[in-house]
Amino acid sequence: MRLREEGRDVIVLSVGEPDFPTPVHVKEAAQAAIARDDTKYTAVDGSRALKEAIAAKLSRENRLAYPLEQILVSSGAKQSCYNACLALLDRGDEAIVPAPYWVSYPDMVRMAGGEPVIVHATAERGFKIGPNELAAAITPKTRLLFLNSPCNPTGAMYARDELAALGEVLEEYPKVAILSDEIYEHIAWGERFVSFADACPSLLGRTLTVNGMSKAYAMSGWRIGYAAGPLPLIKAMTSIQSQSTTSACTVSQAAACAALTGDQQFVRDMCTVFEERHDIVLEQLAAIPGFDCVPAAGTFYLFPNIRRAMERVGAATDVEFCERLLEATGVTLVPGTAFGAAGHLRVSFAASLDVLQTALRRMHEFVAGTSRV
User: Fold this and answer.
1) Helix, strand, or coil here: 57?
2) Taking the mean position of all CA atoms in its chain, how far away is CA 48?
């Protein structure tokens, strides 16, 4: 903000939302809801029309059958995750959080009185944990496992057999619930996306599937997420939500219903563009001295290891590297420390190719020592 106020040319590659406009038919559905005065509260757990659209989506795309009473609509997938933490965790309970993780997971656990147990996944393992790491992290206090596939910030995506292997471990621990955050489901390429509950049907009774509208439909500001899971958990989450936000925005719910039931070509086209950008950005990141980056299988992020680049520029931490990069080039990135993975940074390619090319050129010049630091 300060640099922009000073008139600097700042390129923001730190944003976690698509750079595409919300589809026209979705915006028209919102306008129609306003025109017919559909602007009052819905039920706390969401409008019947939207819950029916969610249930149909889960059946059609994920092979998951949920009655409407096992679905909760919230003000974003983030609220669904936080509601779940409040419902599942008592003081001192543990929640396993694979790292690199989305920045909010550990703090959600702490705010609910629990303790996050971080399990580090390496680039050599594709930024995914395996059954041995999972088993080693489980204790008598473990009550929850977070899974995020495709993952923010790495773009890693678990295959069916990898999820099944984790499920085999969890079979032995009936007190552990699974929160499967699938918000990036439709921004994926290569191997087909698989829901955890589909890969591990015997664990359906303690799996919470979380998703939302922000990523697939470019609706981040509309604030609609949803969760589907066992009835006692959904009831508890609904009670919690009734005392915080009540129902999600009624107009946004009407728009979300149109998104889920309408033409899905927008989603496919956007994913194609993101995959094309991924390939270009990956190649150019690999050309920056000291950057080591593995491909992503989804999302609109890459997560390079920059330890050698930090040495080149004399930055002691990834935070310092990002600060100096911003001051020197105007390019904003998120340091890996925020995601539990020091020595990395997250590059969002939710920007036009022209903007990305300019940012990557500036980054290359900064590390190569040809820009003014």
Assistant:
1) helix
2) 26
DSSP β-bridge partners for residue 97 = 118
Contact between 249 and 223 under an 8 Å Cβ cutoff? The reply is: yes
CA distance 49 to 54: 9
What are the residue ranges of helices labelled H in the chain? 2-5, 24-35, 48-62, 77-88, 104-111, 131-137, 160-170, 196-199, 231-242, 250-261, 265-286, 307-313, 318-329, 353-368
What does the DSSP assignment read for 174-221? TT-EEEEE-TTTTSB-SSPP--HHHH-GGGGGGEEEEEESTTTTT-GG
Q: What is the pLDDT of residue 167?
A: 98
Q: How far is CA 87 from the centre of its chain?
A: 21
- CATH 3.40.640.10 domain extents, the chain: 24-261
Q: What is the mean pLDDT of residues 247-275?
A: 98
Residue 137: partners with Cβ closer than 8 Å, 6 or more residues away: 96, 117, 119
Assess whether pLDDT exceeds 50 at residue 158. Answer: yes
* pLDDT interval class at 3 (50, 70, 90): low
Query: Roughly what angle, to the nearest 10 degrees, separates helices 24-35 and 250-261?
Result: 140
Contact 320, 307 (CB under 8 A): no
Q: How far apart, in whole angstroms, are the C-alpha atoms of residue 344 and residue 318?
A: 6
Q: Determine the 3-state secondary structure of 327 from DSSP.
A: helix
Where do the CATH 3.90.1150.10 domains begin and end in the chain? 2-16+265-368
pLDDT digits (tens, 9 = 90+) for 263-280: 999 999 999 999 999 999
Above pLDDT 90, what percent of the chain?
A: 96
Q: Which class is 24-261 in CATH?
A: alpha beta
Contacts of 330 (CB under 8 A, 6+ apart): 3, 8, 9, 10, 11, 362
- Write the CB contacts of 107 (distance below 8 Å, at least 6 apart in sequence): none
Mean pLDDT over 38-63 rounds to 98
Tokens 């773009």 sit at which residue? 155
CB neighbour class for 106 (10 Å; exposed up to 12, middle 13-18, buried from 19)? buried
Token digits of residue 329: 């080039």
Q: What is the CATH number of domain 2-16+265-368?
A: 3.90.1150.10
